[in-house]
Amino acid sequence: MSRLRSFLFIPGDSEKKLGKVDESGADAVVLDLEDAVAPANKALARQMVTDFLKARPRAGRTVQLWVRVNPFDTGMTEDDVAAIMVGAPDGIMQPKIDGPDCVAKLSALLDHYEEGQGVPAGSTRILPVSTETPIAPFRLGDFATAGLTRLAGLTWGAEDLSAAMGASTNVGADGKWAFTYQLVRSLTLMAAHAAGVPAYETLYVDFRDDEGLRASCRAARAEGFSGRIAIHPAQVSGINDSFSPSEEEVAFARRVIEAFDAEPNAGTVGIDGKMYDIPHLKAARRTLKAAGA
Ligand code: COA
Ligand code: MG
Prior knowledge:
Layout: E1 6-11, H1 15-18, E2 28-32, H2 42-54, E3 64-68, H3 77-84, E4 91-94, H4 100-117, E5 125-128, E6 154-155, H5 159-164, H6 179-195, E7 199-201, H7 210-223, E8 227-230, H8 236-242, H9 247-262, E9 268-271, E10 274-277, H10 278-290
Parallel strand pairs: 1-2, 1-8, 2-3, 3-4, 4-5, 6-7, 7-8
Antiparallel strand pairs: 9-10
Helix pairs in contact: 3-4, 7-8, 9-10
This protein binds coenzyme A and magnesium ion.
The site of magnesium ion has 5 residues, from helix 5.
């Protein structure tokens, strides 16, 4: 699968914004049927998203086309899935899950509609937003053993969780995430790595602050996140740049790998007077993979 750094949200009922997909530069767009669409426009958005997908068959896509469906407790999920599968989306973003069992339930629906629509079995991926209900963070560790073959990664969100708890804020006096949200962010990061899938950072709300976005993305990447959600086209390049290894990082990763290749039985090697061991070798491989090399 091509690398995914940026997921750009597009309200599914906005013809104008849908028209920006091809020029967006995003690795994936998420055509939204959930909270960016007012209840009165749900049916319209479903139709618009389906038409949009059908007009861009999978084989010719240069940007992955994902859809955020409505959560199961709305009763709309199956109608969403039934409609959009005709257009073979690359993946589904699943909001407000309670745990891996919710993802398994969506996966079973996809099994059914992939077969009905002639979409290759198992090819539609799922990215759950796994911290939006109060129970969800407690089940994050279960993704590691849930055997969800469609799982494309894990991402997290703060707004719905704070709303679900009646909280009046999710940030502290310093403007950073309050402890609860830092906690679920870290749990998402660890759960994703435990499950062997990428972790994706939540959105950066201030879409005119490119400096701040880039600094926040660099910090996230340094912690082990692979990419990020975007809410505005202006955020895409900052995200793509920040989650791509620099030329220096790639060059150094190659040196580490070459040093280990030169001494196949060594657990440690020296480069420029510094010691490097197996974790460094693994990190170097990850860097090359992230660079698409
Ligand atoms: N996707 C595609 N195009 C977008 C876009 C998006 N997410 N956000 C803005 N644009 C377009 C606008 O249509 C506008 O086009 P124009 O120059 O042809 O008029 C241009 O980019 C500049 O937009 P701007 O005026 O800066 O922003 P806005 O006030 O129109 O929109 C938001 C601001 C937040 C409403 C908009 O960015 C948006 O809808 N984001 C996605 C929200 C979403 O889906 N949320 C759910 C997940 S959290
Ligand atoms: Mg939400």
